[in-house]
Structures are given as C-alpha cells and as structure tokens.
Amino acid sequence: MLTEEPVLIEEFVRTGKIKLVFRDVLNHGERSLRTHEAASCAGRQQQFWGMHEILFRDQPETWATDDAGLVGLMKKKAATLTGLNQADFAACVDQRQTLALIQSTDAEQRKRGINTQPIFEIGAQRLIGRRPIAGWREILSAAR
Predict the structure, then answer these.
(1) What are phi and psi of 128, to 5 degrees?
(2) Per-residue pLDDT for 3 more than 90?
(3) 103-124 residue pLDDT tens
(4) Distance CA 103, CA 8 (A)
(5) Of 11, 32, 35, 106, which has the highest C-beta tally within 10 A?
(6) What is the pTM for the complete model shown?
(7) Could you tell me which residues come within 8 angstroms of residue 39 by beta carbon, excluding any fewer than 6 positions away?
(8) Would you say 110 and 102 are in contact if contact means Cβ atoms under 8 Å apart?
(9) Three state DSSP letters for the chain
C-alpha cells in the first residue's frame, strides 16, 4: 500500500469521497504489538498517519531489530515526527498505555474473520490484498 495509499488519500479521502479507517490486526508477534502501539501512541497526538507512514516505509529496519530493541526503535522513529511530544509518546509506549485497546481491536477483527492484512471493506464488499491504483480508482468510483 505504500505507493497506492498516498494517491488514494489525495484523490478520495481528502476530497471526502471515502473514509480510510485503520484497524489493528496483530499477526507478526512482538513486532506487531510494538508497531501498533507506536502508531496508536502517536495517534493520541493526532500523528497516527505520520507514524504509520514511517513504520511502513522502514519495515526492513523493524524486522532486523530484535524484540528487546523494538521500543527504542519506535522512539527513534517517533523523534522524526514534527510536533510530537516525545515525553508523552515515550510514557505511552513504555507503559503500554494502548496495548489493551489494540488487543481488543485485533480480537474484534478476528471474530469478523479478518486475520491478515491488507483487508479493505467497501460497503458490504471485502477485498483482500493490494491492487494497482487504476484498480482502486475503478472500484471506488463504482462504489459511489
């Protein structure tokens, strides 16, 4: 979604044609927990999508980091977000303030049969996996 997401946001979300909602699906162990927590903690300061973008872009670094180093890596990534209160962010990830909510959302998704990503729901239609931008334009234009 890295290449398609910015285009979808620009053409469809910012114009009010669609609403993009992110729901947690934890399917990569500690890496999922820590990255979702980092995005959620940034979201408490209205910086969810910025952190989301950084974490997607830097996935190889996250995968190369052992579990013990993930919190430090999340703080390092958060430090690149302009205007983010680093102390509040650090307290949030250190104290795992969003963990219960993330786990609850994941459990809800699993009850709905969603245990992987990306999954897209457009009305009653559920789409699994990536698509080229032309495919998204066609699907979203037909859904209006």
Answers:
(1) -110, 130
(2) no
(3) 999 999 999 988 888 888 888 8
(4) 28
(5) 35
(6) 0.84
(7) 22, 48, 51, 52, 55
(8) no
(9) CCCHHHHHHHHHHCCCCCCCCCCCCCCCHHHHHHHHHHHHHHHCCCCHHHHHHHHHHCHHHHHHCCHHHHHHHHHHHHCCCCCCCHHHHHHHHHCCCCHHHHHHHHHHHHHCCCCCCCEEEECCEEEECCCCHHHHHHHHHHHC
Q: Which amino acid is at 80?
A: T
Omega within 30 of 0 (cis) for the link into 60: no
What the block records as the tokens of 136 is 């998204």
Torsion angle defined by CA atoms of residues 83, 88, 94 and 99, in that order, rounded to the nearest 10 degrees: -90
Cβ atoms within 10 Å of 7's Cβ, excluding its own: 12
pLDDT band at residue 127 using 50, 70 and 90 as cut-offs = confident
Q: How confident is the model at residue 17 (pLDDT cuts 50, 70, 90)?
A: confident
d(CA 120, CA 137): 14
Residue 126 CB coordination number (10 Å)? 12
